[in-house]
Specification:
This protein is an alpha+beta fold and 268 residues long. It is 17% helix and 31% strand. The strands form 3 sheets. Strands 9-8-7-6-12-13 form a 6-stranded antiparallel sheet, with no helix packed on it. Strands 1-2-3-11-10 form a 5-stranded antiparallel sheet, with no helix packed on it. It has a two-stranded antiparallel sheet with strand order 4-5. 40% of the residues are buried.
Length: 268
């Protein structure tokens, strides 16, 4: 089954690779979703209100995983302090996804979705390293992440949740920004950063990821995690045993993709 899903995903990606655009996320699409939310404590933020994370929501519909982050952290980033410099610019983190494991306990297949276009932006902690060029909204497999640069985060407050899993070893082990990985070809993911004027937080960050592109075979959980570059406040949710498309459904989707490809060739 895993090989079948992988083969179909690769074939569909090849058909769409010509355009290469990230998936759109519309208001009407979001209004039809039923999110399950995990609230984050309002007393576990290091720094100003800008670094506050309020919660995370997830939903699954039509073969896609949707994740929303509720935060005050802006898309353009923010100035602040960490364990390396007195004042620096921090970027919003990339979405961390682990199929079948967690970053605290290991295991699983790690994916990431870019939140901004970036390469090595954590100069103070990763000086001289070469990172991949991350494209906002794109999905990366075999993903490697930088960790938070505010090292005192859980050293000073070991009860903060979620735990970073390093045993309070004076480091900040939250996964923050993609450092390495393989770009998953095709229109399999997307991103939308939206202002929020009705709730207590300032921004909603929406992600959309194809379940087939995550290589699910059934029975695995997915850990979703998000924090900003410095790791001053994080939130996670464990999605248990998400439903993946049946082979017949995937076949119908593939047939539609093939028909679209034929139509494109005829009208080219």
């Amino acid at each position: 089954m895993r090989n079948l899903v992988a083969a179909i995903t690769i074939f569909a990606s090849m058909l769409f690779a010509v355009e290469g655009n990230a998936l759109s996320i519309s208001d009407s699409e979001l209004s039809g979703l039923s999110f399950t939310y995990t609230n984050d404590s309002l007393t576990d933020t290091a720094g100003s209100r800008t670094f506050q994370v309020f919660g995370m929501g997830t939903a699954i519909a039509n073969g896609f995983l949707y994740v929303v982050i509720q935060t005050n952290f802006p898309q353009s980033g923010a100035m602040g302090n960490d364990s390396y410099t007195g004042t620096t610019h921090f970027s919003p983190g990339d979405l961390y996804l682990n199929v079948g494991g967690t970053f605290q306990n290991g295991g699983g297949s790690v994916y990431g979705v870019g939140t901004t276009n970036h390469a090595n932006v954590v100069q103070q902690a990763y000086m001289g390293e070469t990172w991949i060029n991350v494209v906002a909204g794109s999905l990366y497999s075999n993903a490697g992440f930088a960790t938070g640069t505010y090292e005192q985060y859980q050293r000073n407050n070991p009860s903060f949740d979620p735990n970073d899993g390093d045993g309070n070893n004076r480091l900040n082990s939250y996964p923050t920004l993609l450092r390495s990985g393989n770009l998953v070809a095709g229109d399999v993911s997307g991103l939308r950063f939206r202002n929020n004027t009705t709730d207590a937080w300032d921004f909603d960050i929406f992600y959309k990821v194809s379940l087939a592109a995550l290589g699910l075979i059934g029975g695995e959980s997915i850990q979703a995690f998000w924090t900003m570059e410095c790791g001053n406040d994080g939130v996670q949710q464990i999605i248990g045993n998400p439903v993946i498309p049946e082979p017949t459904t995937i076949g119908l989707l593939l047939a539609g993709v093939s028909a679209l490809a034929v139509r494109r060739r005829r009208t080219a």
